[in-house]
Design brief:
The chain has one domain: Neuraminidase (6 Propeller). The chain is 5% helix and 41% strand. It contains one helix and 26 strands. The strands form seven sheets. Strands 1-26-25-24 form a four-stranded antiparallel beta sheet, with no helix packed on it.
Length: 345
Amino acid sequence: MKHAAMAKFMTVLMMILSAPPALAGGVTVKAVAELKVDDSGAPIGFPGGVAYAPDTGETYVLSASRGRVVVYDRNFFPRVSVGAGRGLDHVSGFALGPDGRLYVAQGPAGPGTPARIAVLDAAFFPVREIPLRDLPDAASFLPEHLAVARDGRLYVAGQNSVGVLVLSPEGRLLHRLTPRDTPPGSGERPVLVRDVAIDGASRLYLLSEETSKVYVYDAKEEFLFSFGQKGGSSGKMSRPRGLALDEARGRIYVVDYMRHTVLAYDLSGRYLFEFGGKGWGPGWFNFPTDVAVDDEGRVLVADLFNHRVQVLEVHPPAEPAAGATSPAPKGAEEEKANFQAVPSR
């Protein structure tokens, strides 16, 4: 009897632990799919990035353990992988351009071989390569997140790098776009930028893991506003790593590596809700690193140490009544919501 009771207890416990998290504020999350293997059936292992291509309905995932980008069709079937066979190595990030091309960031391959960006056409054949030589820190610069503007400009965020590189369509370094802010325990200075995104109006969104803020610029790279607060409680960001724009639904999603959550903001930077938590069942995360949104509004999360990308339907709480406001993050009254930030070249 004791063994039977213990078995029953363990079964119930596993069901509880594997169920989607109970979320405050009326947010509900439903797991639609898990992307865990590539087109050869091998585990993707440590997914470091995810993106969605609205023109084809495909999902792109960076498999860090296999050094390749895996492409899934609309039904989340792994269709093809792009890696060494296309001349790629030391793959560290990627982006989908408005021209239908795939831009793949690669780290330094050794002395005298700096980081570079490979440009592949829609059939994944190499078109050209952009070496990142003309940088003061070229020997150690590791590109991680990319964004491509309509005019062909390329914005590159590097690991532990100040601001973002701005490259011409030909790959020439134009300048760095660098927010200035006052990180905790520091005076005003240029801040590190971890991710970059561009919306339909060509506004730029720069995410800093260092300050836990998003800096928003217009199409001319003029600073507009910033939002976000550093902290470990609900509504705050501890170690944000990636962001995604859902303009159709008026949301900005930010994935927090250390809090194992995804936070949602409106397009003005007002905090809306969050979901997730540390775990391994559907709707739980284990150090997530990136986020994307498909054309149905489903949220795709690169769940690093669970070795998967989760596809989630997220149903937020009802909008507040007219005149009401969303609850501010705990302790917000004690902190400045936005510090002044200005672009520097």
